[in-house]
Amino acid sequence: MSHFGRSGPPDIRDTFSLLVLNISFRTTADDLYPLFERYGKVVDVFIPRDRRSGDSRGFAFVRYKYADEAQKAIDRLDGRTVDGRNIMVQFAKYGPNAEPIRRGRVIEDAEKSRDRSRSRSPRPRHRDRDHRKRSRSRSRERHGRDRDRDYRRRSKSRSRSRSRSRSLSSSPDHKSRRRARDDGKRKSRSKSRSRSKSRSRSRSRSRSYHSASPARRSASPRKKSPPPKRSPTPEKHTNGKDLPPSRSVSPSPKGAGSRSPAGSDGKE
DNA sequence: GTTGAGCGTT
Predict the structure, then answer these.
(1) Is the CB of A93 under 7 A from strand B?
(2) Residues 141-180 of A with CB under 7 A from strand B
(3) In the structure, how far is the CA atom of residue A24 from the C1' atom of nucleotide B9, in angstroms?
């Protein structure tokens, strides 16, 4: 694991957890330990990893023994470039057991109970941290329960939206539909040409790999060559029902394929 | 080979 040979948290009685964000995906606990250890006594360094592939999520937790050292580490390492990434070091807000943290220190049982009596909400102040874009490309395993609920909600919303859309536009829909059909035919030809171009572009496939790793692979460089040719499946638009293939609007022209993680590196 | 907002394990 990412620990120092011990299983689970060593001792969270008086440890100050620091959250290190924006670290490289290649950065490991062993790489962060010396950095943070220079500014104080590091109790433990943990990097959450994905259970599917096992890759780092891009952030780590560093536990210090003293607050002053943790603060110093934050002041020193926050904003620094580590492994080519500008890391952000700050106090963790939650403990390993989803327990609130006061001043970066893990609250004890007694203190926790007493503290929660007065203020049960750990973070009722600001929730607008930086909601720039919460959509991750492909990461963070989503629990089936939440995922199912989300899917249900989106499906319902879509149905409602479509229903309302039909009510609003009933007359223009016919014209739009008829026009869409005409465009569909012309678009078909255009698509055919586009496909031809795509194939031509796919022809050029020459990449020179420079071995940056000290250990090179003794395997044959040309073991298997994947077929560069794309699947010749011309998508036929059902312009007879709905979904006007107008060039103005494109619901999902690309990227509507299934994701293939294939992240079996088997590293470590 | 990829990704990039956030809060953690035996």
Answers:
(1) yes
(2) none
(3) 20
pLDDT in tens, A135-161: 344 444 443 344 444 444 444 444 444
The separation, in Å, between residue A262 CA and nucleotide B3 C1' comes to: 14
List of residues 6+ apart from A128 with CB closer than 8 A: none
Please give the structure tokens belonging to residue A266.
């088997």
Can you spell out the DSSP letters for A28-56? -HHHHHHHHHTTS-EEEEE--B-SSS--B
| Residue among A110, A10, A7 nearest A62 (CA) | A10
Q: Which amino acid is at A79?
A: G
DSSP H helical segments within chain A, as ranges?
29-37, 67-77, 109-118, 144-168, 171-203
B9 nearest neighbour residue (CA to C1'): A8
H or E element at residue A22: none
pTM to 2 decimals? 0.48
State the nucleotide closest to A91 in CA–C1' terms.
B7
d(CA A34, CA A30): 7
Residue A141, both tokens: 């395993």
